[in-house]
Queue: 2 jobs
Job 1
Amino acid sequence: MLKFSVREGPPSVKMAEPESDLSPPEASIDVHSIAAWEFLFPWCQELREVPGRLYVWGDGRLRGLGSHRSRRAEEPEEDEGANDDEDNRQRQMQRQWRLREAWQLLVLVAHRDAKVWKMLLCQKCGVRSENLGLFTRGEEGEEDDTNADDEEVLAPDGFSVEAEEAFKRRCRLDRDGFVLPQLEFSAFLDKAEDVTVSVFDKWGWFLMTKDELLYQPSAAYLDAKARIFAMPFRIGAPVPRLLSIRVAVSFELSYGCTPELFVRYLKGLRELIDDVKNRDRELNQAGIEAVASTDSAENFTYELADLRLVWALEFLLAGWLYA
């Protein structure tokens, strides 16, 4: 398993910050009320505006941070202030930093309370699902849990005890609209011209394997993170000093993808994997991966968990069915 950590280390570049009003929480706050999480709404909006939108696969992976239907999503956005390549790269880099901060805040919420995590995804992050039953029970993403745990799930005949338990668990997860705090990065491989900022540039900025020494955690991010820890959750397992986040990568192959383009993407992926390994080695040598027992989430460790090569037709159909 490849791992690499994000250090909230010494900065040299100041990021633009989402505006939010962060006042200290009170013990009387109902953490399962959407109003209690107003301070995270600007961060949810950041994720809501991800190109290609966020949506959930049937196995619970949250897909985003890549092009969905067209590689045009990778091309530079129009901005009157960005008249040259370097300006555009700086803007895109800071955009990926903001997305990563938003994602890490939501993942932290997921480790504190899965119900709150799902509520924010559904109501404020604009998450779609390939499972038409996901997030559809109740109003505005709220579920009716009355007698939900009492519903009997029957496995098909011939299942072993272990297989039956696994089947029942999966059915409960499907019923509850289960969503993993795991991202899938995607790239659409088609005939395309060279662009100023490649998909591997964006992934490298997000995963902190590219220009990481320039990164400075925004004040809004640090304040929101402190607010999450201060929320009156039920007592549970402490959040570790290193919080692991799984990442999958998928390449969508279209009929217009040339062998040259495919090879170029594979080389880019190889370089990304090498960067991951090198960074992980450096962090291990520096002793940064020591485990602490206190609630802190000082660093986030990303694990490259899966690589898929798929034909784009299934994604086009999914976009048509669930748009």
Job 2
Amino acid sequence: GSTRMVCDISDGCKNNVKFGETVSLGDDFKIESILPKVEKGTEAKAHITPFTHMAAKRVLAGTVSPDAIKEAFSEVSQVVGIDVLDTAPMDITNTSEGSEASDDQRVYGAFLAAAGKMAVDDAGGLAAGLTKLTDSFKDGEFTAEDDFSITRFMDAAHVEAEHAEIKSPQLEKIIANIKAQIDKDGNYDPQPSPTATALPVKKAKALVGDIRTWVNSVNDLSDPAKAFDADVESAAKVLNSNSTVLAEMTVNVITSIFEKFQSMADEGTLQLGDHTINIADKQGASAGTVDVTLSDENGIKMVVSEQTLEDITFNFELATHLPKNVLNNSSFDLNKVKISTTGKVRKSEASMELNAVNLMVEFESPLTITPGADKPPLPKIKLANLSGKTILKADGATFDGNASMKFTQLTQPAMNGNSTVSLEKVSIDGEFLTSGGSSFSANATLTVNNAATFDTFAFLRHQPEMWINGHSTDDPLDARLKFSSLYPDQIQPPSFDANFSHGQTCYYGSDNYECRGEDFLGATEYVSDLVKQQYPSLIEIKNINVSVNHAGVALDTGYSAQMVFPDFETAEQFAQATLSVTLDLALEGYANSKAVITADRNKVKGGDLSIALIRDGRVTTYSVLVNADNPIPETLKVTNLDNVALELTRRGNQLSGKISVDGTKVGTIKNADSGLFMVRYQDGSFETLQ
């Protein structure tokens, strides 16, 4: 056929057409858009995409009219969170275009690629896949019985955006908003805006009415926090640093086991039975060993007996896809490792129970393992995913449900230690139990957008102050000689104790005790040099203590130091993270309503905070700019998918603003002497915001 397109699907289109290459669509491929009547002599622009095709088919399935067209596009726009008719989608195969594209254009490009992926994955090809998409939405909703899965579509958008390196907090917000509306059976029924066919001022008044209703409903509560059917603090606890440290240790132990077994397989020494594997700590030193039993059960299976490393106790079983021929000197290719894990990991502050949780570790490049050949380099981990049924407990709160963690390769040197991976994403969806015994359902996702260049594990481990301890079995301070010269008559036989602390040195000899207000041992210089070599980033050493014990010919020198470190994050290098939490609302008159709270940290001391309120298949978003140095927001913006935007700006004690539709101002907002906010529209009408 003559119709062609650029393949924007990460896995490529069929017939060996790769991402970014041109593909012919065939004679049976047809895609449409539909517009309301255009007045003679006026110019009209329309984009033609699978989503405009969905809207056109929705209109053509009923009575065609200008209002039906507007309602159909309003309805389809709810599916992807942006205006599908007026937004020009980004070509995600063109990296230069990405830097100039708006957030809406990036989002549109990701969703188009996701639709293409689902169509290509259909056995009937692109045309058949597109037909299934439009047929599924002919009745205005996606159901679990449809050939097109809305849940898979949202997941595909994630995959395609990641492949195209689209870092878009807005996309994350939209996907969270859509998933919040998918019921437990997989059904999703978006609704057109009730003012989709209205004139601009009426659309603006509808948004003001929604705001007034929401605010009054919350104000009627004794505690505004009770608007959420959840304990947000409890939800946050299961994502704290203690939980992520458990995940880090789990990944570290498992990858260490596989690296050792891969090395043994290459040498032809890997056998079924018991093995002892050394595990390195975050500094690269040995943290201890684990005992592993290796067996063959339609793939290599490993059982790690209960053991403790660095105060973390664990035991688990790992079932892998690795073939038995890793044991019999046969060559095989290793691209990735897939593991199903069951077990427990715990420390005093937190615990993690895994029930058939799948871990996938993908290497940067494939390895061909040939026993007897030169030993290949240990593989670099490209990414790792951990997902499945999980029970997390931390600080008295419990989560029971599905959890996933994604780790990506760290492309910059580790900031503290020898980590090669960084935590990129944590997601949980299930039931929370608070320390007080109440429970609620919710889900939360934390995404570190710059995980490849920011060492998230070092950040989680960072402490502004810490003590370090060490000792030496020789005499690095020449204490024996120095004390012998000071007390020649007291060291017969040579035995003494001494310590340096708070600027003075105290000596405990066989016959006397004496303290001197000086550091004649040189303890400060000795310990400072040792600590600075190990921790070059420290900015101050507050306290130094040294003890020397000399008994007979044996001498032991112990030391401790209190170290002060600079802030881990800087204005240029900080965790650029997006946290999204979905909660049910507990407001009278708002049954089955939800809130998606999203915090997008794009500055070291600030970012964007938004709350998307979802009711009756429609979304209204409230967003503010947050600055840690100024807790009162300077701006508030409220938007909906009718392209209505209300903006308020604070200057001192005064608030003013405007309300616009499709980018055109239709009203202004100012303080009245009564303390109310007056909204005056361009048609001469007015109302209060409260």
